[in-house]
Amino acid sequence: MTGDSSQAGEKSSQIDLTVADLDQPSTLKTFKADVEVIEPGFARIRYPFNLDWCNPRGSLQGGMFAVFLDEVMGYAMIGSHPKLDTLWTTTSLNVNYLRPVTGEVIAEGRVIREGSRTVYLEGEILTAEGKLAAKGTSTMLLLRRDGELLK
User: CA–CA separation, 108 vs 76, rounded Å?
Assistant: First the structure.
């Protein structure tokens, strides 16, 4: 994982240390993804291109977009909740597909609004050239470490 501590400042270093202590999700390892930025309420992950993830026409299969968006929005949550006492789970995920992709992608996720129990997030999939390929929204439910709802 590479953090952008020059832009995020001291807060990012604290978040990077917390994230470094966590086990990386197997999806990051499987996809050989690079977490480029984690800041409060924002994350960016770069995913390489792999023909095994493509449809018969050679473009990235739509389900991969959903996986990448869900993951990057989850990492945006890490930036907002660097302490290990809060968990979250995706309760809804919506993806709008805007263009096919035949190369590496950059996924960005942002916390838009956080309530006492739910968080609304938005994400984007960009081509390596910066063209918008997909947009997604997500709602996540905040939980205590023991899996119970926050009060």
Answer: 8
